[in-house]
Specification:
- The structure holds 2 protein chains of 2 kinds.
- By secondary structure, chain A is mainly α.
- Helices cover 86% and strands 0% of the residues of chain A.
- The radius of gyration of chain A is 21 Å and the shape is globular.
- Chain B is of the alpha/beta class.
- Helix content of chain B is 40%, strand content 23%.
- Chain B contains 17 helices and 16 strands.
- Chain B has helices spanning 17-25, 30-37, 66-73, 96-105, 122-126, 128-131, 137-150, 166-179, 196-213, 224-230, 248-253, 258-265, 275-278, 292-302, 322-330, 353-361, 382-396, and strands at 2-13, 40-51, 55-59, 81-86, 89-90, 107-110, 184-188, 216-221, 233-238, 241-246, 285-287, 306-310, 316-321, 346-348, 367-370, 376-380.
- In chain B, helix 1 packs across helix 2, helix 7 (137-150) crosses helix 8 and helix 14 packs across helix 15 (322-330).
- The chains are: A mainly alpha, B alpha/beta.
- The interface between A and B is medium-sized, with 20 and 26 residues.
Chain lengths: 277, 397
Amino acid sequence: MTKLPIGLWVEFIVEWAQIHLEWLFDFITMIIKLLVSGIETIFLAVPPLVIIVLVFILVWFVANRGLAIGTAIGLFLIQNMQLWEASIETLALILASTALALVMGIPLGILTARSDFAHKLMMPLLDFMQTMPAFVYLIPAVLFFGLGQVPGLFATVIFAMPPTIRLTGLGIRQVPAELVEAADAFGSTEWQKLVRIQVPLALPTIMAGVNQCIMLSLSMVVIAAMIGAGGLGTEVLAGLSRIDIAKGFEGGLAIVIMAVILDRVTQSLTEKRKIKV
Amino acid sequence: MSKIIVKNLVKIFGDHPEKAIKLLKKGYSKNKILEESNQTVGIYDINFSVNEGEVFVLMGLSGCGKSTLLRCINRLIEPTSGTITIDGEDITTAAPQAVREMRRKKISMVFQGFALFPHRTVLDNVAYGLEIQGITIEERRKKAAQVLETVGLKGWENSMPQQLSGGMQQRVGLARALANNPDILLMDEAFSALDPLIRKSMQDELLSLHNTLNKTIIFVTHDLDEALKIGDHIALMNNGTIVQIGTAEDILTNPADDYVEKFVEDVDRTKVLTAEGVMKSPDPVVFLRDGPRVALRLMREHGISSIFVVTRERKLAGILLAEDALQAVKEHKEDIKGIIISDVPKVGVDTPVIDIIPVIADTKFPVAVTREDDKLAGILVKGSVLAGMVRRGNNID
């Protein structure tokens, strides 16, 4: 039996896109670069100490004192390991990819909740996106966008978006049917029903999706660094290629610190919003 | 004047309702149609009219189509065929825009599970219907606060719904439905989720609100007692269609068919039966002049542990317990006056069984049944009440 040239087909599609959609990729590149470098510039313009104090106050405000103290200690440690700039690069990448994933993922999630057809179409696609090894995304990313932060962010968004879509869809589908019916019975338009009833009630679940999205973005940091996305991932990769345990561990530790801070902060945001249904 | 006229209304659930309608015309049963065409008949052949300002009850067991029928009236469910005329206009052909307008201004709904929005305060729940019409926040909150006051929830405006008890939550549901000042209220098992006592008071309150507001109400329930109590007219549904429409009395006295008869038979007899119907004859009793030995012998003979004591005119004096009588005998007392318990539970002969049950449940003694002149007419023990109810039930079969 002859081998089906599945790989060749995909290659063909990618090459076609590379040629004919260049304008689109250029446009996307421009926007992403602007976004990432904008975030980077802002954070690097402010002295680390000021940022640490501001983050300390913010975390205390949205979460609690213990977490705020832990956060400050973690950030001082990063600064002390001289990984501040790399961390900011990583943070910019994560924030930008999370923002893009949310901007696309939440409307798509709402769509899957409202249309059974969209749901049936989207679910296998999401399974595919999540189970395909993240490395594979790097290949077309590099072809489309070259090396650097932009392809790294592209691969990260594809990898991190599925839980946002899934959990947004799930949250909205879980709004009790009687409440949706009540919204209809009083003459709500579809839009009024969505923004006044469904989204607010789905918010805890949507926030869990946001949290997942951030965590998955972080997990892509090292992989994205392989195509030159920079940041803490580069430190870890450098440690690996030189068998430099100290460098690798410090880079890894900084990623862990960022992960814990981002996770706890987004989780406590979710907790505060939780409403008993 | 008829406010709502429903004619030949049919609702088929499924992709090919025309198949089911064809079979319906041939007189096939619901089950047969489901088997033959894979279509579910929700309701069929529904004809009725509702007068302006009346309470019209749709009653039947779960699955009989009453909730489906109710939802056709505000088109939460699209009817398959037939017409629903409200104020002379057929709403089954109204455009979505017109349906929305109708739901905003003319018809409101109260839900079985309250369906309050948990992320909004009580006040903003009530104001929801006004809010989506684009009414300003001051105006809608003012209106909502007024309506909350009419349902007796003044002071709860800023609470969250889940902080309220079930009965209060449904008052919010009612207030929310009233806030738009609709002509028609659709109430879907509105009180079924409430405790019996609260349900009763909500029924009373609905009736008094109805007297002042004069809305046309369509009320769905599976509880015949509720239907009989609040309905000006009652439509009894079975298996997707209406089997009888009439006043409470029509339905109780002239059941249209076996189904209605069987339904009516289940009217809560505890409300109809009185103490006189279930009591045992007051035998044995002891008289006040009798001594403890006489009392003890009577109790031993009849195998009972307490006995009622009456005066010469057979007026109730109290109850004597076996252990007290025994004690008195040991102490050679001749008189029982000092040892009887005069504070005994008693009910009048006309007391309905439903009010007797809590009395019996609360006491370890038998309950005395007395006439107006306080004469002992009978005795109630748990067993005799149950037996009395069962005996009545059997008689009707």
